[in-house]
Amino acid sequence: MSDTNNSQTWAQQLGDSIPTPMADEIDAFETNITLRKAGKLDPKIFAEARLRRGAYGQRYDNGRRHDGSKTQELLYPSGDLVKGPETVWDAPGMMRIKSPMGIASNVQLETLADLAEEYSDSILHVTTRQEIQLHFVHIDSTPDIMRRLAAVGITTREACGNSVRNVTACQFAGGCSTAAFDVTPYAKATTYYLLGHKDIQDFGRKFKIAFSGCKPNPCGMAMFHDIGCVAVTKEIDGEVKRGFEFFVGGGLGAVPFQAQLLDEFVPEHELLPLCQAVCRVFSRLGERKNRARARLKFLVKKLGIEEFRKVVAEERETIPEDERWTAYLDDVGVITETPLREGRALEQSAIDGLDDLVRERFEYWRKHNIWQQPQTNYVTATVRLPLGDFTSRQVRMLTDITRKFTGDTVRFTAEQNLVVRHVSEADLPDFYQELADAGLASPGASTIADIVACPGTDTCKLGISASRGLASELEKKFAKRLYQDPEVENLHIKASGCFNSCSQHHVADLGFLGVSRIVDGRRIAHFQFVLGGQWANNGGAYGLAIGAYPSKRIPEVIDRTLAFWKAEREEGEDLKGFVARMGRATIKKQLEDLRKIPSYEEQPDFYTDWGDAREYTIGDLGTGECAGEVVSIVDFGLQDAERRLFEAQLDLEGGKPGQASVAAYKSMLTAAKALIMVFNIDIQEDADRVVADFRKHFHETKRFHDPFAGAKFANYLLKRYENPPSIEDDGLVAREAIDEALLFVEAAQGCYQRMQGDI
């Protein structure tokens, strides 16, 4: 932890190396910390101020990172123990550090390594937005961290908060044979044009932008962003012009929406003004009061894509001309990232000269971790980072390797890895060996063993189940089986610790989101199992949950599902196609016995979560009030709600979206009715009566409100009641209704559990 004198020392040492605007911003933030400590700054204002500077709250009750280290044993530089916010003033816990397009230079990496070592726990975590996070950082340290980052060209501004977040792009951009062109300069121009721009300072929620060089591959993930730009070319007057397919209104989160096409060809000179126009429309017309509906996807849905397109076009005409819109275009053809060594082919004799075991490992690593560049005899190597983590020591070893073989930059990926570009093929054996010496040669990049996981219960306040713990267990399981099971190698597993889609579980072949259940008075970690997602085509399809399974059964759930797929699939049929053909009901039936839970006396470790020997709880998510003795009819009612919800999914799958929409609404009414029975109120399934009693006993009292999501889930029911579903509803409406119903039913489970006084 840094005191004032240390802060002054750093400011003096860095001197003119920090650009004046950045220095002024950091000074202002440091003043805000002083004012907050003195009680002269409203906590809500300070919270938004620190979020916009990348300082984020984290969880302490679990007292650990998944690697087993205890936060109670972790010291700040001052010698203070990390014991949570009750002993550490307003600790934000985590610093999110922007890395536009995931690009970082060697000097920047080494600075990050130093900061992780001095202010955190020596672990750098790569996020699914191609950023770096440092955990267990004290609020007093953040100005020092910001200054040292600024001195090497890194900002944390708008890394969090209601702003344009880190702009992401395909990690292979500029070294990809399937891309229309290199999107890097366009993503960079968008980043710095919008950073701190006055038009993005009054958003109701966060805003995310992504660039992809082509449509078929998943690297850019354009289809689930507020703005998604896919590179295309078009012949105009005999000349090939660059431009973008411009998508809007995508997003995952609790209720996923696929982006819609705003314009099939936006010329490169119109990219920035169109982004600005969309941002201005979002700022002006986006939801303000209800944060659950404050993303762009809801505004696009509310207006409809045709009306939204019209409003954006009108907004574009009102924006004053800005020279920055096109100033960067003169440089888009300039290559800024060039190879260090001559590109030479890899000779077979170099491979044959390796020891047998090293050769086997090298060949497998080469099979999955190497991407062939269009530049002759050059490849991009993926450095797989299990759980997205690597240490300060590994960072320094990596920069030594890149300085020797490739040059100055790496890029972080949306799969929580990093890539090293422009490796000469002839250097691969030596390059691999040096990565192996650094513990950075894990094979299986982008395979089923390369599992994406959010922080979950390790450090996230919203975490319900141990997503990182599950990912670690599955990674070990599949890493051992990859050689023997090539049929499943290219599947993707993604695990989120709660209903939010931070791990992007909706677009996984096998997706999981954390929930919990109470059995015989004991809480048990569960995961909802999501099937039918598609990682390819920029996240081209979203899966649906088929049911909740105990966390400790998830490896069996996966094994059973994959065995069924391999036994019954048609020739060449992928898992997504298999799920669509067989139907979720058939697959769910194969897994039914895995929902059973042994008694505590029979198997006490079943009542723990992955990576944590303690009996499972959900810690500081919130404490509810006890409602006294509860009759079992409530359990039956909630189970019936889950049944109705699953039937809604089957209706959607069967091409009956209107029927699915109606069934999803009925599942919410059933769950609400079950809760009302806690108070021994016997009612029929009459929507008016159910909603009135739910509003009185659960919404107005805030009894139903999730400790962190607030009234959001309750509002799903109230909104559907005010605008009842119709048998004429289309697939998009039905899909939203099902996703909202799933969250409402899960929230009803959580509410019931809190009322039993078990939390």
Can you characterise this structure?
The chain has 759 residues and is an alpha+beta fold. It folds into five domains: 4-150, no CATH class; 175-321, Sulfite Reductase Hemoprotein, domain 1 (2-Layer Sandwich); 348-437, Sulfite Reductase Hemoprotein, domain 2 (Alpha-Beta Complex); 456-621, 2-Layer Sandwich (Sulfite Reductase Hemoprotein, domain 1), CATH 3.30.413.10; 622-759, Four Helix Bundle (Hemerythrin (Met), subunit A) (Up-down Bundle). Strands 1-2-5-4-13 form a five-stranded antiparallel β-sheet. Strands 3-14-15-12-11 form a five-stranded antiparallel β-sheet. Strand 14 and strand 15 (418-424) form a beta hairpin. Helix 2 runs antiparallel to helix 5 (142-150). The protein is globular, with a radius of gyration of 26 Å.
Write the layout of secondary structure elements.
Elements: H1 4-14, H2 20-37, H3 43-52, E1 55-56, E2 93-97, E3 103-105, H4 106-119, E4 123-126, E5 132-137, H5 142-150, E6 168-169, H6 184-194, E7 209-212, E8 227-236, E9 239-248, E10 260-267, H7 271-285, H8 296-303, H9 305-318, H10 324-327, H11 348-352, H12 356-369, E11 370-372, E12 378-383, E13 389-391, H13 392-405, E14 409-412, E15 418-424, H14 428-437, E16 452-453, H15 467-481, E17 493-496, E18 510-519, E19 522-531, H16 536-539, E20 544-550, H17 554-568, H18 575-582, H19 584-590, E21 608-609, E22 612-615, H20 633-653, H21 657-676, H22 687-699, H23 712-722, H24 731-755
Parallel strand pairs: 6-7, 7-8, 16-17, 17-18
Antiparallel strand pairs: 1-2, 2-5, 3-14, 4-5, 4-13, 8-9, 9-10, 11-12, 12-15, 14-15, 18-19, 19-20, 21-22
